[in-house]
Structure formats: C-alpha cells, structure tokens
C-alpha cells in the first residue's frame, strides 16, 4: 500500500494540498437489505475509501453523551423541579400595546373643508388579544368623540382571522369595519415588547393634522376694501346703462333641436349678465321671459371648484379666476354661457357707440343668420318594371292606395269617336310577310293604337286583331321618360315600330286628309305633301269627269261669273285672309258645309256685306238644300282681292 505523500503537512489557510495519487472518489453505500427489508447502514469509510476521523453519531446520541454523568462517582442524578405554570391572563394582565393613528373622513356638505383628519389611539390587550379604538376629545369640535370601537376581537379578513399583535407595526394601514387607520407611532412599552419578540419596527411617522382645525387656530382675518376700484363710483357712473346683444342658440345637431333667438343684456353698473327669450305668436312655448336671471357669470374656474355645489351655494371670488366682462361680448363671435354656445349677430346703437369709445371697435356689422330653405328634393321614380303603362306604375309611388291617372276630359269630349285609319305593310325579311296588310286605327280621344289584319283566304295566316288598344312607345325614347306615337307621326311612307315589329304606312282614308288640313300646323310639310299627292292620284279620274260636267252645267258657269263680278266690285276694298279658317273651325267634319244660322253669325263677326244684292245671289247659288251652305265657293269671292 502506497502511503499518502501529503500526510502530515500542515493544514493552514493557503496551504491545502490535494493528493495526486487518489483515484477513487466513490461514496460508500448507506442502504442495505436485511431479511428482505431496506435498512439504513452507517458507512465505515468516507469518499474514496478514506477512513472516517470519528464515528458518525446521531444528534440524540451526542446529546446523551454530553449530558451523561458518572453514576458511580456522583450517584443517580436528581430531576430538576418543573417550572411554575403561570396562565396568560395572569402573566399578561394589564399589559397593553398603544399605537397612535388617524383616519380621513370626507365632508361633502361644507364650503370650508372637503375632508377631515381624526386622530385616534388604538389599544391592543395582550391578555385576550382584544382591541379598542379611542378618539381624544377636541374642544368645540362639534363631533361625538371618545370610544369609537369598544374592546373586542377585531376581524382581519373574511376568512375568520383576527388581528394579532404580530400584525401591528408603525407606518402601516389597517382596516377596521370599513375605515382605514394609519399607524404612525407607538409608546415605549409597545416598542420594547415588539422588539423582544423579534419584530423589526418601521420608523415613526408624523401625525397628520386636520386642515380645518389648523385654520381655526389662525387669527381672524381683517377685511379691507380694495382702494384700486370704487364700486360705488361704478354704480353711480354706469347706472341704467345696459349693453344689448342679439344672439341665437343653434341646437339643430341634437334630436328635436332648433335654432332659437335670445337677447343678452350686460349691465355695466355691476357686470352682471341676463339672457331673455324671444317669443313669437303661436310658437308653442310657455311664455317664460328669462332663460337666465341677472347674475355674474364665471369665465374660468379654479381647479378645486369643479366639484363646488353650485346648486345650493353661490360662487364667490375664491372659486373663480376670471369673470365675463364687456370685452368678451363681440358681434360675430360665439360665447359659451352655462354650457350653451350663443352666436352674437347684432347689437343696439348704444352698444356700438360704447364699444367705439371704450375699446376703439367701430366695425360691428350685422350678420345675416337667416337660413335659406334647402332646394326641394327632386322626386325620382323607381325603374320601370315593364308591367302596364309607365303612368299606371308611377301611381304606386305617389299615394299609398294607387289611383288611375287623370285623363284629359276635354280632349275625350272633343275627339270622341274620331279615329284615324291607315293601311300599312309589315317590313320583314320573311317572304311570306311581304303581302300581309294591316289597318292601323289611331284613337284621338285616348292616343291609343289598335292594329287589325284583314283575313286573306288560303294565305295560311289567321287574320283578326293583331294588337289591342294601347299606347305605343317610340323606340328612341327612354323607359323613364317614354314618348308615345302621336297623329303627327303617321303619314304615307312613315316607318312605325310597334314592340319590335316595323310597319310602313301605305295609304290613309279620307278623314285623315281632312284632319290634317284642319290641323296643318301640327304636321310637317313633307307629311302634308305625301298625303295630298296620294289623294290627288286617287281623285284624278273623278276630277276629270267633274270638269266635263262643270263645262256643260249652266249652274257652274253662273257661279263663276258671279264670283268674278264680286271680286271686281271688292277690288278697292281690303280683303280678309282668315275667312276660310273661321268657317273651318266650325266645320268639325271638314265637309265644306255649315249651317245657315252659323253661316250668318260668322259673316256678321267678320263684317261681311251680306246685304249686298250680288252677295245675296252668291249665297243663294252656294246653298245646298234648305239648311247647308257651301262656304268653300263663297270664300273664293273674297280670296283674290288686293291684300
């Protein structure tokens, strides 16, 4: 076995040596098994197999060896007598811990104080762990003082724990029945006791003082009237001098708000403000004359005055940093009074003169605050749904219960049973449709169109009603503003598009020509010419036959000679050009004849010389039967005279 080379070297600080030959660093087993049970085994060697310097003994064995006395030498040791038992209520009797504390109490209904500091003494009785709170009596405090909380164990939390002397210390807060107490200091006995129990006390604090109590200790203030401004002089100088301003309060942004007029009076004698309402007849408001009574108006309040009870107390100079003065009321600027923003738009002449002399402001023009009525909202109809006429669908947007559109009654009475008929062909690329003919009927009373197709035998097409009475929209018009076909759109050669089908007008009946002649101003010259050409072609053979009969008829020769004589007689007299138009107005059917009674009325209105013998003879020749007169031949006698 190799000996330890460092054995015997001094083991001093800084002279410790490590054995370089040591290679085993394992630790001996401390557990073993006996009869199948794990038992603790005391190791005989240390780490790495080193010998232990001493046997490891338990603490109980060491204590027994330390206290074991030699029985043979000194005999059996005697047991010490037990200590005398003293109960807690005897040992801790009249031992009380005392703490100085305070709590803060709010004062809501006072102008001189907002909170109150109340100083108390907290006592802790060690014999039964009870506590009490006592408030020293302050003279003339007006508060019931003395015992605030009687002696009892005080709850610490909601779990049922109570305050113990271990929970008490200086500089902490404790809550008792909702009040928070601040412990600031304790007496000498309390300090010694807590330190003896191992509690480290916090440094003491200064007791908080009640501000109102300290204020009362100060000497009474002496009020001295300031000498820089004499209020009596202001009263005598500006008495009965009032600035009048005209203002509005615009509250239209809020629900049910409106713009109302007010008069603001500023009294120069005491710098007070009054706001009066302007009432109008039947405005629906109670006749209260004043919105705000005459009073001084604060402009800027101090920070502590935000919670000032203004509803029960008057604001004094202590709560106001700046009051409203005359320079704050300027025409053309808004001013906020008691939460309402008034806009001053005018003032009276005295106010203008005062501002010019006092502040040098000469330009105070009146501002127009009258609101212009907004333009009427244009009523827009919804898109057309395609059912029925546009006029019928639009009635659903005007009233809750739709009514039929109003009809032109006069037009219906004047044009009743008047129908314009046209012959048309279908413009279609299909060869079978080229020979199809259709009859268009235009009803003047209702501006409706119906189409009828005459049936043709062995054509393979069933004739009959092609389109019932309806208004037809022009293809160039919009859906919102439809333009319907009228009588001026129908003439020979015109193309009519009916719901996607194109028709070409080929011919008309005789009544259409008469209607167009009586309403020539409504038709274009091309339309009139197309109808006249077609009628002339149709009546050419009949006219030739009529001319032959006229040459052979002595009555016609007599008429022409009589007309020529009358024209020569009226050569130097002014001739009227509107004679034919006057007769055509009463000839509704364009037949060329009028009643005798109506004929003489028209001649009387035109101042025609019907008493002349030649004209009487002309009337006799133009008479057709006993009731009718051919006015077309009669007018010829007055149409070629000098114009």
In short:
Microtubule inner protein component of sperm flagellar doublet microtubules. Interacts with the C-terminus of CACNA1E. Interacts with alpha-tubulin. This protein is α+β, with helices and mostly antiparallel strands.
Q: Overview of this structure, please?
A:
InterPro entries: DM10_dom, EF-hand-dom_pair, EF_hand_dom, EFHC1/EFHC2/EFHB. Its main location: cytoplasm. One of its GO terms (biological process) is mitotic spindle organization. With 643 residues, this protein is α+β, with helices and mostly antiparallel strands. It has 5 domains: 70 residues, no CATH class; 130 residues, PH-domain like (Roll), CATH 2.30.29.170; 128 residues, Roll (PH-domain like), CATH 2.30.29; 127 residues, PH-domain like (Roll), CATH 2.30.29.170; 84 residues, Recoverin, domain 1. 24% of the residues lie in helices and 24% in strands. A 6-stranded antiparallel sheet has the order 6-5-4-3-8-7, with helices on one face. The longest helix is centred in the C-terminal third of the chain and has 28 residues. The radius of gyration is 64 Å and the shape is elongated. The mean pLDDT is 82.
- Strand tally is 25
The CATH topology of the largest domain is given as PH-domain like
Mean pLDDT: 82
Please indicate the count of domains.
Answer: 5
Would you identify the regions where 5 or more consecutive residues have pLDDT less than 50?
none
Q: Radius of gyration over alpha carbons?
A: 64 Å
Which percent band covers the strand fraction? 15-25%
Q: Which structural class fits the helix and strand makeup?
A: alpha+beta
CATH top level label of the largest domain? Mainly Beta
What is the name of the CATH architecture of the largest domain?
Roll
């Amino acid at each position: 076995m190799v000996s330890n080379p460092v054995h015997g070297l001094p083991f001093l600080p800084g002279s410790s040596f490590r054995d370089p030959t040591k290679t085993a660093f394992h630790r001996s087993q401390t557990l073993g098994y006996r009869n199948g049970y794990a038992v603790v085994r005391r190791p005989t060697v240390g780490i790495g197999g080193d010998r232990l310097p001493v046997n490891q003994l338990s603490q109980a064995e060491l204590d027994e060896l330390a206290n074991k006395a030699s029985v043979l030498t000194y005999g059996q040791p005697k047991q010490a007598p037990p200590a005398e038992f003293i109960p807690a209520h005897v040992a801790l009797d009249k031992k009380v811990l005392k703490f100085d504390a305070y709590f803060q109490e709010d004062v809501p209904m006072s102008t001189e104080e907002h909170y109150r500091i109340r100083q108390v003494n907290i006592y802790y009785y060690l014999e039964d762990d009870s506590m009490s709170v006592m408030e020293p009596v302050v003279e003339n405090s007006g508060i019931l003082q003395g015992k605030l909380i009687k002696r009892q164990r005080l709850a610490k939390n909601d779990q049922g724990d109570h305050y113990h002397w271990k929970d008490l210390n200086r500089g902490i807060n404790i809550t008792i029945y909702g009040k928070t107490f601040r412990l600031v200091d304790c007496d000498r006995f309390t300090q010694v006791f807590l330190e003896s129990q191992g509690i480290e006390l916090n440094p003491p604090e200064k007791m908080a003082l009640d501000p109102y109590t300290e204020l009362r200790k100060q000497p009474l203030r002496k009020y001295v009237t300031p000498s820089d401004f004499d209020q009596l002089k202001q009263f005598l100088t500006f008495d009965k001098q009032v600035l009048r301003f005209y203002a509005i309060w615009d509250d239209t942004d809020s629900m049910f708000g409106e713009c109302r007029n007010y008069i603001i009076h500023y009294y120069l004698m005491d710098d007070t403000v009054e706001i009066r309402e302007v009432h109008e007849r039947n405005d629906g408001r109670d006749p209260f004359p004043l919105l705000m009574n005459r009073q001084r108006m604060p402009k800027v309040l101090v920070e502590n005055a935000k919670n000032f009870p203004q509803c029960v107390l008057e604001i004094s100079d202590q709560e106001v940093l700046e009051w409203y003065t005359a320079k704050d009321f300027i025409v053309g600027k808004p001013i906020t009074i008691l939460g309402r923003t008034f806009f001053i738009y005018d003032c009276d002449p005295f106010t203008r003169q005062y501002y010019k002399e006092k502040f040098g402001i000469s330009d105070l023009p009146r501002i127009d605050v009258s609101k212009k009525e907004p333009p009427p909202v244009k009523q827009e109809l919804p898109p057309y749904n395609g059912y029925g006429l546009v006029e019928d669908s639009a009635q659903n947007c005007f009233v809750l219960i739709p009514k039929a559109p109003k009809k032109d009654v006069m037009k219906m009475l004047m044009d009743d049973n008047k129908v314009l008929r046209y012959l048309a062909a279908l413009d279609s690329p299909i060869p079978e449709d080229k020979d199809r003919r259709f009859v268009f009927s235009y009803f003047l009373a209702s501006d409706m169109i119906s189409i009828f197709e005459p049936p043709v035998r062995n054509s393979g097409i069933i004739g009959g009603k092609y389109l019932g009475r309806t208004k037809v929209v022009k293809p160039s018009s919009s859906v919102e503003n439809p333009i319907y076909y009228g009588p001026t759109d129908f003439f020979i050669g015109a193309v009519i598009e009916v719901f996607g089908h194109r028709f070409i007008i080929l011919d008309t009946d005789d009544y259409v020509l008469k209607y167009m002649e009586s309403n020539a101003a409504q038709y274009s010259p091309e339309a009139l010419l197309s109808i006249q050409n077609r009628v002339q072609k149709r009546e050419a053979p009949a006219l030739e036959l009529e001319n032959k009969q006229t040459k052979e008829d002595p009555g016609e020769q007599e008429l022409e000679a009589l007309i020529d004589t009358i024209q020569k007689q009226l050569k130097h007299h002014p001739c009227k050009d509107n004679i034919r138009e006057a007769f055509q107005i009463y000839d509704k059917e364009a037949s060329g004849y009028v009643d005798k009674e109506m004929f003489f009325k028209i001649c009387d209105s035109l101042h025609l010389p019907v008493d002349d013998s030649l004209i009487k003879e002309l009337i006799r020749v133009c008479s057709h039967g006993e009731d009718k007169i051919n006015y077309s031949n009669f007018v010829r006698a007055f149409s070629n005279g000098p114009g």
